[in-house]
C-alpha cells in the first residue's frame, strides 16, 4: 500500500504539504495550484488511500500522540509512557507507542509513520547515542518536521531541534554521589552506561566531578549496557578486584537491581558490607527498597502532553517547572534511604 511519504516523494513536496492537500486542511497554509495538482496526481498514480486516522484529521492533525521509546521493557521508560498515556486520555487523545530498540534507523522510520498518520505531536523517550549510524539522518528528519510545524518533545537530551523536558542528569548523579560521601562512603564505584549515550555520559560526569572534588579517584565499570545483567556482571567484576569498593552507584535502577543480585549471591550484606544506589525511582526499584534518586518520570510525560495539546497562546500548566519552548531542565534531589 502506498504511503503518504511515497506520495510526497513522487510529488517532490514535504509530507506535511502532501497531508494538507489530501486531507483538505491547507486553508491556513495555502499551496499553489501547481503543487496541489502534483500531489493529487501522485496520489492517483500510486493508488494512495487515506487511513482512518488521516480521514479524521482536523486542521491537519488527529487526536493521536506518537511516542518513540528507546526500550519499552525498561521500567524507566515505562513510567514515562504511563504518564503520557494518562495525560493524553484526560484530554481526549490516544497514544501510539513505537519501540525503537535504541536504533536511530528505527526511530526515523517510526517517526515518519507517526507523521504520516497526522499525529498531533511526537514524544521521544530516551537519549540518542552520539556517533551512532543513522543519528544524523534522524536529526535532519526531525529538524525538518519541527520547521514544518510538528510538535516534537524530547524527554532526554537529543541531538536534534525539539522542545526538551528533561532532568539534569549530571546534577542528579553529582547529588547522589555527594549523598553517599556524606554517609561516610569513600571508595565509591560507578556501574553501567553506554558510550555516547548522552544521559549516561552526563551521569558518569556528575559522579566523577563529585569524586574528584573530595580527592577520590573515580572507578567506572560496565559501560556496555544499562540492564540488570550489566549490573550483575559489573558488580561481580568489582567484587573480584583486590580492593573492592565500599559502595556502588548504578547508572539506573535496573543496573542497581542486577548489582543487588550479585551481592546477595556473594553472600554479602547490604549496606553492612557494601552499599548500592540507583537513579530513577522506578516501581521495580521500590519493590527492592532500593536507595535511589527519584526522578519525576510520569510528570515528564504529563508535561510533554501538555505542551503538545495546548494552544500556542496558553501558558504551561506546571508552575513548579519553568517550561519554555526549546528546553526545560528539572533535577529532583530527593534521596530515599532504604538500604
Summarize the SSE layout with pairings:
Elements (H helix, E strand, L loop, with lengths): L3 H8 L3 H8 L10 H14 L5 H4 L8 E6 L5 H16 L3 E6 L4 H13 L4 E5 L9 H13 L3 E4 L8 E4 L2 H14 L5 E4 L6 H16 L5 E3 L6 H13 L6 E4 L2 H13 L9 E6 L2 H5 L4 E3 L2 H13 L18 E2 L5 E2 L3
Parallel strand pairs: 1-2, 1-3, 3-4, 4-5, 5-11, 6-7, 6-8, 8-9, 9-10
Antiparallel strand pairs: 10-12
Question: What does the model show?
Answer:
This protein has helices spanning 4-11, 15-22, 33-46, 52-55, 75-90, 104-116, 135-147, 169-182, 198-213, 228-240, 253-265, 283-287, 297-309, and strands at 64-69, 94-99, 121-125, 151-154, 163-166, 188-191, 219-221, 247-250, 275-280, 292-294, 328-329, 335-336. Mean pLDDT is 85; it is low at 52-60 and 315-339. It is built from 13 helices and twelve strands. Helix 5 runs parallel beside helix 13 (297-309) and helix 10 (228-240) crosses helix 11 (253-265). It is elongated. It folds into three domains: 1-60, Orthogonal Bundle (434 Repressor (Amino-terminal Domain)); 61-167 and 297-330, Rossmann fold, CATH 3.40.50.2300; 169-294, Response regulator (Rossmann fold, 3-Layer(aba) Sandwich), CATH 3.40.50. The strands form two sheets. A six-stranded parallel sheet has the order 2-1-3-4-5-11, sandwiched between helices. The chain has a six-stranded mixed sheet with strand order 7-6-8-9-10-12, sandwiched between helices. The protein is α/β, with parallel strands linked by helices.
Amino acid at each position: 500500500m502506498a504511503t503518504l511519504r511515497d506520495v510526497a516523494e513522487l510529488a517532490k513536496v514535504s509530507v506535511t504539504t502532501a497531508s494538507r492537500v489530501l486531507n483538505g486542511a491547507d486553508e491556513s497554509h495555502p499551496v499553489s495550484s501547481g503543487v496541489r495538482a502534483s500531489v493529487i496526481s501522485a496520489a492517483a498514480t500510486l493508488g494512495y488511500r487515506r487511513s482512518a486516522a488521516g480521514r479524521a484529521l482536523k486542521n491537519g492533525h488527529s487526536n493521536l500522540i506518537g511516542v518513540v521509546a528507546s526500550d519499552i521493557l525498561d521500567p524507566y521508560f515505562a513510567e514515562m509512557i504511563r504518564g503520557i498515556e494518562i495525560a493524553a486520555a484526560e484530554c481526549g487523545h490516544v497514544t501510539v507507542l513505537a519501540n525503537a530498540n535504541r536504533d536511530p534507523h528505527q526511530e526515523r522510520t517510526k517517526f515518519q509513520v507517526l507523521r504520516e498518520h497526522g499525529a498531533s505531536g511526537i514524544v521521544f523517550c530516551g537519549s540518542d547515542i552520539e556517533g551512532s549510524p543513522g543519528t544524523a539522518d534522524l536529526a535532519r528528519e526531525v529538524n525538518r518536521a519541527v520547521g514544518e510545524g510538528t510538535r516534537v518533545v524530547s524527554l532526554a537530551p537529543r541531538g536534534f531541534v525539539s522542545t526538551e523536558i528533561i532532568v539534569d542528569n549530571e546534577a542528579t548523579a553529582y547529588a547522589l554521589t555527594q549523598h553517599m560521601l556524606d554517609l561516610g562512603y569513600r571508595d565509591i564505584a560507578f556501574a553501567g552506561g553506554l558510550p555516547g549515550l548522552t544521559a549516561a555520559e552526563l551521569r558518569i560526569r556528575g559522579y566523577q566531578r563529585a569524586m574528584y572534588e573530595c580527592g577520590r579517584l573515580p572507578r567506572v565499570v560496565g559501560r556496555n549496557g544499562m540492564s540488570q545483567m550489566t549490573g550483575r556482571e559489573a558488580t561481580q567484576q568489582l567484587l573480584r578486584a583486590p580492593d573492592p569498593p565500599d559502595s556502588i552507584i548504578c547508572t539506573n535502577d535496573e543496573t542497581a537491581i542486577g548489582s543487588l543480585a550479585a551481592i546477595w549471591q556473594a553472600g554479602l550484606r547490604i549496606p553492612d558490607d557494601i552499599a548500592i544506589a540507583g537513579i530513577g525511582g522506578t516501581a521495580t526499584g521500590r519493590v527492592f527498597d532500593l536507595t535511589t534518586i527519584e526522578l519525576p518520570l510520569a510528570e515528564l510525560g504529563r508535561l510533554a502532553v501538555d505542551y503538545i495539546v495546548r494552544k500556542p497562546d496558553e501558558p504551561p500548566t506546571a508552575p513548579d517547572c519553568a517550561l519554555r519552548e526549546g528546553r526545560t531542565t528539572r533535577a529532583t534531589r530527593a534521596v530515599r534511604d532504604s538500604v
